[in-house]
Amino acid sequence: MRKEMNRRDFLNATAVTGALFLAGDILQKGGLAQGLVKVPKAEASEVSRRTIRTITLEEHFATPAFLKGPGAQIKGRAQATGVLDQLCDLGERRIADMDEAGIDVQVLSLTTPGVDQLDATEAEKLAHDTNDILADAVRRHPTRFAGFATLPTASPEAAAHELDRMVREHGFKGAVINGHNRGRYLDDKFFWPILERAEALQVPLYLHPTKPPRPVIEASYRGNYTAEVTNLLTASGWGWHIETAIHTLRLILSGAFDRYPRLQLIIGHLGEGLPFMLPRLDRILTMALTKLQRPISAYLRENVYYTISGFNFTPAFLDLFSEVGAHRIIFSADYPYGSMSEARQFLEQLPVSPADKERIAHGNAELLLRL
Ligand code: MN
Known about the structure:
alpha/beta; TIM Barrel; 6-stranded parallel β-sheet; 19 helices; 9% strand; globular; binds manganese (II) ion
């Protein structure tokens, strides 16, 4: 009952305002098809560049050791698309790009596929070295960079220890986990020492996309089209996002958030499709069926934060906004794969109240990460 009231309060306070902003725009611009909220003014962006603090959470880097190891599989494409140099820079060039785009803080993480597909020994060493490199960069630029740890998920006790080390000794803000570990997902109690430590340290875990396990690709993604199409369909074209959505649902359905109720998860890309499915999830996966303490939507509203991370799509944003509210949405660019300038422009024209824009741009991140 109380939760329902909260939701209604929120709808009154924020979504309606958003809908009104939007309605006005549709009327003025003549509808969705014509690009309903294109904000033309460079002047507005100049003003708010000086007034709105911006913190981004899905921002990536790479190290030479990573690119020789698990990063070898992304190196060619990163080179071809011109983002390799940006990935490898943890200094002046990155900061110049941030200044140019109007981004104040990047919370950095090792890029996909992280170390999450490695065996325990390899993962432990590479995670440790990667975290030390990032800690150095954060020490050099403490007002511009913050860190999310890389964890050797294949070795959960070591991962919990590494999270502890990075948070307590180096001020990291949480960790990024790149999806399943060789087909094992976080609902498996094998991994729960990581969840337990994150909750105890009061830091969030960012669940970043990865490709589905090989048998899933063979069963569901390979089809009557080229290998290149298959490859992107399994990754950023579809599979990454659906994979992260199902991973989030598995975690909820396992009771992990009943066991660790203060644990906070972050997912990117405007919720990886989950907001669209949220009412359906509540209707079909009822509490009578799941035996969970709360409806699925309650976990999605109380234990998950959502970043934009380059999904500069207004209708999808409004769906997320209507389902979970502005207090759960955090700005992000997915740099260098996504453009910081485009993300900044998208933030500028969001059809939400100024107070909600502040929450999304920096307020929610400041509260969640104590920045
Ligand atoms: Mn990303």
